[in-house]
TrEMBL record:
Single Gene Ontology MF annotation: transmembrane transporter activity
A GO cellular component entry from the record: membrane
Protein name: HlyD family secretion protein
Main location: other
Originating species: Chitinophaga arvensicola
Family: Belongs to the membrane fusion protein (MFP) (TC 8.A.1) family.
UniProt key word Glycoprotein: no
């Protein structure tokens, strides 16, 4: 007789189903707890720049472009105005001290000079005539005094004789008094003549002194005018190269106008344009390095021009010892300007990443080299080659230093 068979609960099919579900559940649990859920972007490794962080000497300097200039430049300014009648030399010519460069004409100055010469001749004649007139007056006064002295002598003799005779009553008292009054009048007349002569002498001295002073001042003015006329010929104040002359024959020049310059070729300096960000850090005495023809030359900042134009200011630098041969005016060259002391630091090469992150984070390549992970960092100073790393990186780390513009906000880059 047939017997009913009961089905087993744990059959093979059910065991397989439960086991499979458990495996799936375990996989889901693992993905939920342990899997990497960070946003990932696939990138091509050959299109990015990877740099190695290292430890080394951090040099505090900036690279600036400088132009070679003469150590000394002398401006040529017109002392007097006029029009250019002749041009002896052109720009670029070598000149010696005293060489004529150009000639100006000024008719007004010529007329003033001639008038002053005429005035001097007139003053000289007037002075000579005044001296002659005074001399003649002195002779006349001396003649008058001599005549009065003769009359006084005769009257005195008659007075002395009559004084005795009137006492003896030989001469009348009336005649004696008349003689006495005549003598006294002659004495008063002589005194007046002497006073008049003294006054005329004093007045003559004053007139001569005034005329001589006027003549001396006029002569000094004439000498100044002669010097100004001589300055119409513009001459080289020093030897060197006439680097520029900005006038042509027939052009009008005003007093004080710049007409060119002369470069002293006995030495050169370099003038650098520097970003205004460093205006408080650049001062006289800073060191700099100039590379030329494969050699390095030490320089020093000698003058800083604090005026900022278009976001830049200028500084002059001179060579401390030897000056390179072969440099020419107008050449431009990079200069390494030292702003502080060197120090040991962790160094990260410069790159486009900084404009995207502000130096707050970077992508660091893992040890396998298959991906790069975002990491927060802190940067300090920078020079033209490196950033100074303060936190977040160690020597040997591989960092993507090219631009992050195309990476969005991904946490992981996969190669």
């Amino acid at each position: 007789m047939d017997r009913k068979l009961e089905k087993k609960f744990w059959n093979k099919k059910r065991i397989l189903m439960i086991g499979g579900g458990g495996v799936v559940a375990m996989l889901l649990l693992y993905m939920l707890v342990f899997a990497d859920h960070r946003a990932t972007l696939n990138v091509e490794k050959d299109k990015i720049t990877i740099s190695t962080v290292k430890k080394g000497t951090f040099d505090v300097y900036i690279a600036v472009t400088a132009v070679v200039m003469p150590l000394k430049t002398i401006r040529l300014d017109a002392i007097e105005g006029g029009y250019v009648s002749r041009k002896y030399l052109d720009g670029g010519s070598m000149v010696k001290e005293g060489d004529s460069i150009l000639r100006l004409d000024n008719q007004h100055m010529m007329m003033d000079f001639v008038n002053h010469e005429t005035e001097i001749y007139r003053l000289r004649n007037e002075l000579q005539n005044t001296r002659l007139s005074i001399r003649q007056q002195e002779f006349t006064m001396q003649q008058n005094i001599s005549d009065i002295d003769a009359k006084i002598e005769a009257a005195q003799d008659l007075y002395d004789r009559n004084k005795q005779l009137v006492e003896e009553k030989i001469v009348a008292r009336q005649d004696f008094n008349k003689n006495k009054f005549e003598l006294e009048g002659l004495l008063r007349q002589k005194d007046i003549q002497l006073q008049s002569q003294k006054y005329q002498q004093d007045n003559a001295k004053m007139q001569i002194t005034q005329l001589e002073g006027t003549l001396a001042r006029t002569q000094r003015n004439l000498e100044l005018m002669r010097e100004n006329l001589n300055s119409l010929i513009v001459r080289a104040p020093v030897s060197g190269q006439l680097s520029s002359i900005d006038v042509e024959v027939g052009s009008s020049i005003t007093a004080g106008q710049n007409i060119g310059q002369i470069d002293d070729l006995n030495g050169f300096k370099l003038r650098a344009d520097i970003d205004e960000h460093y205006v408080s850090q650049v001062f006289a005495g800073l060191k700099a390095t100039f590379e030329f023809d494969g050699k390095s030359y030490d320089m020093i900042v000698t003058k800083v021009y604090p005026e900022v134009k278009s976001g830049r200011f200028q500084a002059d630098m001179t060579f401390e010892k030897n000056m390179p041969e072969g440099i020419r005016r107008g050449q431009s060259s990079p200069i390494r300007l030292v702003l502080g002391k060197s120090a040991e630091a962790i160094l990260l090469p410069l790159g486009g990443f900084f404009s995207d992150t502000g130096g707050n984070w970077v992508y660091v390549v893992d040890k396998n080299g298959n991906r790069a992970v975002k990491r927060n960092i802190s940067l300090g100073r920078k020079n033209p080659l490196y950033f100074e790393v303060l936190e977040g990186l160690q020597p040997g780390d591989q960092v993507i230093t090219s631009s992050y513009e195309n990476f969005g906000n991904k946490d992981v880059l996969s190669f």
